[in-house]
Design brief:
Elements: E1 7-11, E2 24-30, E3 33-42, H1 59-64, E4 69-74, H2 84-91, H3 103-106, H4 116-122, H5 127-136, H6 145-149, H7 155-158, H8 170-188
Parallel strand pairs: 1-4
Antiparallel strand pairs: 2-3, 3-4
Length: about 190
């Protein structure tokens, strides 16, 4: 079976997919029990465990069998907006990148809050550079920090797996960079 795409959909923290979609909650095994996957759902016809109502096949095995899991990730930054239009309009505005020059701001931002040293070293000034920071904070990529800041490696190296180690997909990095930009706008407006 070839690798299926990894689909993550960010939602507000109160969104319950079962109220909108006919979907089955993904499952996993913990302490020999079938338990809900933290955020995964199946929209195709997967067998359902009659006792738990969860997918009868744990997500790792289901993936190997070709079942397609979608992760519905609760993202609290979206709770601060009344509409998608508000988010789209705010994303169009260039953020104050100088906010990322101060550790006290960085610690308040999603994904990068524990990585002020790397953020301060890279000094991101664009969505792409911020996405690169998100790639660099992954354990398999930290050794590339100095070569990256010296311009000795290209972006492709940041998003390519070395020796099977985990790497952050560029699409995910760009998406999370946009979320951080939203938070930067909220931070500057004293709303975060």
């Amino acid at each position: 079976m070839k690798n299926l795409p990894d689909i993550d959909i960010d939602t507000t923290s109160t969104f319950d997919p079962s109220t909108v979609f006919n979907a089955t909650r993904a499952s996993m095994v913990a302490k020999d029990k079938l338990v809900p996957h933290p955020c995964g759902y199946y929209f195709d016809n997967i067998p359902v465990d009659k006792v738990t109502g969860l997918s009868a096949i744990p997500y790792k095995a289901a993936d190997k069998l070709g079942y397609f899991k979608v992760d519905m990730l609760h993202n609290t930054v979206y709770d601060r907006f009344n509409s998608r239009y508000e988010i789209e309009e705010l994303i169009k505005i260039e953020p104050n990148w100088d906010l990322l020059e101060h550790s006290e701001n960085i610690v308040r931002l999603t994904q990068i809050h524990d990585h002020a040293t790397i953020v301060l070293h890279v000094k991101p000034r664009s969505i792409n550079m911020l996405a690169d920071v998100l790639a660099l904070i992954r354990p398999g990529k930290r050794h590339l920090l100095v070569p990256y800041t010296l311009g000795r490696i290209d972006q492709k190296t940041l998003y390519t797996s070395e020796d099977g180690q985990y790497t952050f997909k560029k699409a995910h990095a760009i998406a999370y960079a946009h979320v951080i930009v939203l938070e930067m706008h909220l931070l500057e407006a004293n709303l975060l």
